[in-house]
Amino acid sequence: MPPEMMLRPNHIDPMPQFNRLPLKIALLLCLSAPLFGQANDITISSAIMAPSAVSDLSFSGDSNNPEFAAAQVLSMEEVDVWARIRKGFNIQDLDNPLVASQAAHYSANPDYFLRTTSRASRYLFHVVQELDKRGMPTELALLPFVESAFNPEAYSSAKASGLWQFIPSTGLLYKLKQTMFKDERRDVLASTDAALNYLEKLYGMFGDWQLALAAYNWGEGSVQRAIKKNEAAGKPTDFNSLSELMPAETRNYVPKLLAIKNIIADPGQYGIKLPKVENQPYFVTINKTRNIDVKIAAQLAELPINEFKALNPQFNRPVIIGGDKTQILLPHENAEKFQRNLAKWQRPLSTWTSITVSTRQRIENIAHMFSTKAEVIREVNHIPQKMVLKAGSTILVPKVSDATYSDITADVADNATMAVEPDHPDTRRIVVKVGKRDSLASIATRYQVTIAQLKDWNSLSHDKLTFGQHLRLQVPFASRAGRSSARAGNHRVKAVISKKRNR
Asked: DSSP per residue over 249-313, as a string?
């Protein structure tokens, strides 16, 4: 359960008369709800309001009355997240002309600013809630504007990913799991927690938010070396004084954030109109212990697939692997739809299983085994054309039947790897010089072919060979010819590699 889902005013106890409240209020006040049928493996958690929002409002009446509790929730809607962010500004302004030039750039592109802030509306309450809990400046809630334009699927040339643009190594350092099935650098909850942990660490190192932000972009070691260089030269070590040592990206990084801060502080001055973002949770968290296809989850929630993926971008494959720590985010209004539709769902929740190949395999052979097209296997597993699987690779395949093939376990998903190599012929042509002691039988055994094949390839009508004679052979290219096997859950699947002559 994410932290904000556990917070509520201690003096409010709305549950005794829960059923009397309107649906929207009831959903907000619900801490967890069991589902039925196929839904018995999930729980839904939500939040009432931000603690800071309660302190900003004045109320009268009996705080023990559930109707009064509902009134508090409704009053929250009058306070938007932008006002809450403004109240928490606490990073020192930067006297740098780049701040003004960046603000001018954003104000000259109001459509881009609106698109980005509209995307941000899904995530801002959660980020601000986490910042408030830690007592961190709320300007940091705007950092994904600079990092990813609030696109959780953003991917950079440096292999940084997600809202907060973690590179793989830093992601692993901050316990963001990166597997074939899931990349937590894109997980809204996990990546936000990791980013704030990292920023807190950087502020502890430098004691200055501008330098901490520079280190987030440039690396803490780079900032430390720049500080030591200026100290050795008797120069100041503030951001402006160090900026001449920084690459252009970092030199503009902090000014970009502070320019966005200035626009949020007074959008009218820059000709910007901000979308309304209510100061309440945008999503609830669903804990799912069983596998479910991404498309089916979106369908049950009655959400467009793009909207579902915007909240759940961490899933790399079309199936979500269930487990004790698996979480799905849904907007408030779709959580009840998901619950109702899931309880009535009579078909399998997941249509995929996995196999691990023990030898080199062509995708076409695997597709044939599972009665599907090679293009389907390639697409869901991100396998390029003209590539084959190396031995030990785990891939998704369609379930031939739900009764025969089991769901993918969390252990398989966490440890699965996939490696590919260029598709080359199964056999290659070689020429062999006959030795003194060679016979058709010995050569056939040595090169894993038959005597009949040797005679056919060389148009031999007899078994006698001559010392120094040259024979043409078609031998297996890389691995031993014959039958290979693949594991599908606890089941054995046989794959026959044809030995065609591909030139």
From this structure: HHHHHHHHHHHHHHHHH-GGGGT--PPP-BSS-SEEEEEE-S-EEHHHHHHHHT--HHHHHHH-T
